[in-house]
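Field log, afternoon session.

UNIT: design team B
ACTIVITY: writing a sequence onto a fixed backbone
BACKBONE:
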């Protein structure tokens, strides 16, 4: 072996050893993702891994798929999973029963639950649903619980004036809307966006002022773990803030990174480029409740306490909670400012210059 080749082999070995040592120095962080498999809203997590935002913080972010938000909240409360990405409803329900949980970063200040109708429908308000049929994924889901709640808030009897029918996922719901089996759907805003953008018919959200500013999903842990791992919690939140800036700046890149990280998330029924564009549009359908400038917050991840309290009261009125829970019992903003100490301009430049296979 020549001297030049030997030097190259030695250099490669040093680089590999350095890389292994660097990885060994990173502290693992586990977070529960409250769906059986990753979906398109896991794109920010894929961005974190691809661009090394976790390594920048000295951590190795690892994921645990968990069946439901209720299971996520339970596993966090019992310290079986340190952090989870859970909805406010199951977390508040456990807090109401004595669990010591903390929500320390709130992704969305605005509901991801809504009732929608075809754009051509004569139904303009929730009150117009009297005598109509509303499709839901299942009777135990939040689409049903919150759907019935907003129907009651509009002065209707949710058990007599409106008929709720199980329709399953978005593709089935779309077919039932098209053939007139149902008049409206309440299966979640992302699935409504999926129907509007990729399946049809185009949908129109009905005004739901009672829940429009309701918080949705955030990072949750047990209070004991939070108190002893606050630095870790802040680092996790900062990673996600960076990824959110990147993903909202270049959604096409974020979805391509998602597909690269978890190939099973790639839809099989259409061309890949079209799938990327469609999933990017669905992800950005949450832009108004995601970004600070559109959601009325100063910081990414900030919880608006008054909006939390208003929604928690509704959940109690709708019997989702066994007692009226206050945001002060489990919601904190004390690491949010630190989670926003990032170089936004640098991340936006990174997003703008990221090479994608799909044309913008």
């Amino acid at each position: 072996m020549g001297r030049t080749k030997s030097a190259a082999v030695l250099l490669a070995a040093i680089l590999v050893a350095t890389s292994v040592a660097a990885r060994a120095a990173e502290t693992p962080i586990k977070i529960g993702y409250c769906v059986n498999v990753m979906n398109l809203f896991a794109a920010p997590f894929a961005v974190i891994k691809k661009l090394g935002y976790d390594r920048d913080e000295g951590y190795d972010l690892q994921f645990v798929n968990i069946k439901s938000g209720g299971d996520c909240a339970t596993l966090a409360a019992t310290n079986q999973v340190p952090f989870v990405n859970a909805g406010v409803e199951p977390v508040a329900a456990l807090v109401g029963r004595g669990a010591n949980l903390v929500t320390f970063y709130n992704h969305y200040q605005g509901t991801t639950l809504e009732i929608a109708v075809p754009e051509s429908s004569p139904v303009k308000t929730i009150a117009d649903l009297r005598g109509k049929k509303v499709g839901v994924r299942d009777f135990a889901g939040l689409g049903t619980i919150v759907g019935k709640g907003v129907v009651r808030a509009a002065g209707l009897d949710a058990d007599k004036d409106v008929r709720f029918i199980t329709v399953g996922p978005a593709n089935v719901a779309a077919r039932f809307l098209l053939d007139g089996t149902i008049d409206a759907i309440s299966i979640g805003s992302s699935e409504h966006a999926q129907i509007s953008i990729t399946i049809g018919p185009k949908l129109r959200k009905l005004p739901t002022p009672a829940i429009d500013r309701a918080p949705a999903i955030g990072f949750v842990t047990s209070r004991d773990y939070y108190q002893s791992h606050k630095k870790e919690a802040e680092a996790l939140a900062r990673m996600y803030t960076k990824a959110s800036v990147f993903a909202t700046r270049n959604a096409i890149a974020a979805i391509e990174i998602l597909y690269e990280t978890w190939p099973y998330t790639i839809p099989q029924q259409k061309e890949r480029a079209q799938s990327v564009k469609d999933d990017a549009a669905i992800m950005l359908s949450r832009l108004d409740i995601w970004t600070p400038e559109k959601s009325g917050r100063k910081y990414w991840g900030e919880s608006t306490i008054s909006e939390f309290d208003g929604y928690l009261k509704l959940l109690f009125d709708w019997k989702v909670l066994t007692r009226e829970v206050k945001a002060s019992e489990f919601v904190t903003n004390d690491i949010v400012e630190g989670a926003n100490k990032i170089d936004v301009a640098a991340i936006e430049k990174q997003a703008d210059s990221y090479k994608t296979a799909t044309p913008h």
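LOG NOTE: The first strand starts at residue 27 and ends at 33.
NEXT ACTIVITY: expression trials, pending approval
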